[in-house]
Amino acid sequence: MSLFLIKIRVNPLNLIKLAAKHGHFSAYQSTAHIDQGYLMHRLLAALFEKDVPKCFFAQNSKNHQSIEVLFYHKTSIKLLLDQVKARILVLSIGQESNQLIQLKIALSCIEEEFVEEKDLSAIQWDNIKEIGISVTVPPISRTTNAQNKISEIDSYLLYVFNREKKLKEQTEDTTTIEEKNRFEVYKEWFQKHINQKEVCHCESVEITSFKLDTMQRKRTENKDQKKWSNLSRPVIEVNAKLKIKSPEKMNDFLLNGIGRHQAFGFGMLKIISFHQ
Q: Which of 97, 108, 125, 148 is the most buried (most CB within 10 A)?
């Protein structure tokens, strides 16, 4: 299976134009209140449709003039962009539609002269024992309340809640209920999410940063109306060493990433070292 590591540069001014077309941005809002991950999700979805990458990583360029976006894909970026241009040509036949306008704006966001890719298809995963990776993830868990409503919660707060509940109910010997700090809980959360995929085993974890981030999402009020809501979520940056268990599944493992909110800029496993 082909695998490419792709880097594109995005023009932020054109990205705001695309956001305006999607009703996400107005002249009365500050760009400081715009969720960059959501905007990048809208851009990639508009460009690549069903071929949209499952996860990506975005950061400001060194000169802060553009946004750099990394993602893995089965198809080369040249072919992906050629497919976008072919769709524009087809849509250009007849009257100019809103879909055509949005697609043209989306393509103008990509600074094509700076597009880069690395073909990883030739990597012999059988010959590699371990990899070092870096990843940005929100360490959150999903819970279900008495009304069967699913919600997200900081995995550390969930741990604290469950621990206090056990202490209150005294369902266990309280001396066996270990008290853990936030980073210990996050490390266990990360190891669980890596190991449960049964592709790699997490040998070591280092949390290099932690912050509370505000994410913007659209929620449905009714079938005809959607409203913006702000979600506050913990976000950690992790460096980890992974031992490869199933080399034949490594490409899919990288394509899929880990954790929640992958489509909004989280969970991409960036390889920083190989160990043979």
A: 125
- The CATH number covering residue 136 comes to 3.30.70.1210
Q: Are 188 and 228 members of one domain?
A: yes
> What does DSSP assign to residue 267?
-
Using the 3D structure, point to which of 91, 119, 147 is the last residue of a domain. 119
CA gap 217, 230 in Å, rounded? 7
Domain that holds residue 96: 4-119
Residues 74 and 189 both lie in one domain: no
Cα separation, 135 vs 270, whole angstroms: 6
d(CA 79, CA 190): 35
In this structure, the answer to whether residues 200 and 250 fall within a common structural domain is yes
> pLDDT digit string (tens) for 207-234?
999 999 877 766 655 555 556 677 788 9
CA distance 103 to 83: 12
Q: How many helical (H) and strand (E) elements, i.e. helices and strands, does the chain have?
A: 7, 10
Into how many domains does the chain fold?
2
Structure tokens at 119: 């073909």
pTM of the model: 0.87
| Pair 74, 144 in one domain | no
Cβ atoms of residues 254 and 121 within 8 Å: no
- Residues across the chain: 276
**Domain final residue pick, 119, 142, 161:** 119
Q: Which residues of the chain have pLDDT under 50?
A: 27-28, 30-32
Phi, psi (deg, nearest 5) at residue 163? -65, -45
Residues 6+ apart with CB under 8 A from 73: 3, 4, 6, 51, 53, 80, 255
* β-strand partners of 71: 6
